[in-house]
Amino acid sequence: MTHVHPTREDRVVASLSEVVGGPVGDHAGPRRGGVGVLGVLLALTALTFALGLVSKTVCAQDGWSTSKQSRFTHACVSDVPDAYSATGLDELAWPWSSDTDTRERHAVTEEPALVGLWSYAAARVTHVLSGSPDVGARLDQPPGTVAASDEVDDERRLFVVVNVLGFALLAMAATAALAAAGRRRPWDAAVFAVAPVLALTGAVSWDLLPVAAVAGALWAFSRGRLVLAGALVGVGAAAGVWPVLLLVALALLCVRERRVAPLLPTLVTATAVWALLNAPAFLTGRAQWERFWSAAWDRGPDQGSVWAIVAQSAGLGRETGLQASWALVGLWVAGVAALVLLAPARPRLSQVAFLVVAGVLVLGIAYEPEQALWLLPLAALARARWRDLLVWQACEVVYFALHWWWRGDLLTPGGDGVAGFYWLAIVVHVGGTLWLVAMVVRDVWWPEDDPRAYQVTVMRSNVVAV
């Protein structure tokens, strides 16, 4: 066979394959014609995404209303429809406009630059598909009246559809990139393709933009295309900042190899692309562009993080929480650096990046359910074992459900009691992430147990093992 088949190499998949006749036989050869591995993976991705959309049917039927309790009971909340009227996209307002009238009518977007550009483009498409409604007439009405109109309600539904179709394409592009990142192990991308996290949170926000960029960057690294990899990291950073951590992981590997050649072109290209994508927002409204950064910085101990438990149980100020969070993240990264330098063999990029991003998510000041997507492409390559990945995914599903039920006051304790069930959700999420972290650390320290270790020799030429 031309690749490693999971039914012959992974115990969990081998057990599940008994339903369809058992693992692939010893005399199986490469398939001629037909759909092929990539076709199956893309079909699985589309199916997973479709099932996720079905889970949000109740919210879609209610017009994505923010006043309906069902959005919490059915855990189908999404930031996408909320942004359509809140930031003036229903009036085609430029997200970073400094116009006084626009700013009096609508809030400034708190999303990164590329997300703002994507949303604005999606709003343009929505207006065209809606028959190009008269935006000027809406400016004569109060924003609340415009947002509550039946016409805008229909547009809001269509806006979600336009975005979701784009998200689905991004998810399939990420699957294809992950499959191509390892020629001998394309089936590892199935971890991404059928992930419950992808189904539940893929349409919650615009996080699939940086996720797809990171998956593409991992593929580019595996082919030695450092300039392209840097460009994709820049795209991801313009949509979510956190893909910059991929450069941190690469820097640690370069320190171990005592080579900066793979880092310099990647860093320069990433910076240039990030600046290019931020230029429209920066040049048309610098103060509005800075809103994203100030909102992120001003956020204190918030939902989903261990700091939320500390704040609710013992009291914790914003400054103290930020300082403690940054300090612990710094110690975590230092620990990852020590692991990279002391490991018996050079770790793979996906392993180091996974560990760095996981530290930020576990010790960061806040954690939203959709942030689990950040780890998904890295986890698919860092720990190619279904048992551990399913444990982590199960914990994230538990957190996803309890988080939204808590937000909907369905888990509010009586009297002066503490939010025990929500604390439990945070503990489950952190525990599941740390479990996968422990498995990746074990693979780094004992590379003979790493199923993808065949890729790791030395950093030859420009190729970076992922």
Structural class: mainly alpha
Q: Can you count the helices?
A: 24
Largest sheet: none
Q: State the domain count.
A: 1
Gyration radius over CA: 23 Å
Please bin the fraction of helical residues.
55-70%
Question: Would you tell me the overall average pLDDT?
Answer: 89
Oligomer: single chain
Proportion of strand residues: under 5%
Order of helices and strands: HHHHHHHHHHHHHHHHHHHHHHHH
Number of strands: 0
Termini separation: 22 Å
Q: What would you call the shape?
A: globular
Could you characterize what this model shows?
The chain is an all-alpha fold. Helices cover 66% and strands 0% of the residues. The chain has helices spanning 6-9, 11-16, 36-54, 57-61, 70-73, 79-86, 100-105, 113-129, 135-138, 143-148, 150-181, 190-193, 196-201, 208-222, 226-240, 245-257, 263-284, 286-298, 306-314, 318-342, 349-363, 372-382, 386-407, 420-445. The radius of gyration is 23 Å and the shape is globular. 46% of the residues are buried. The model has no long low-confidence stretch (mean pLDDT 89).
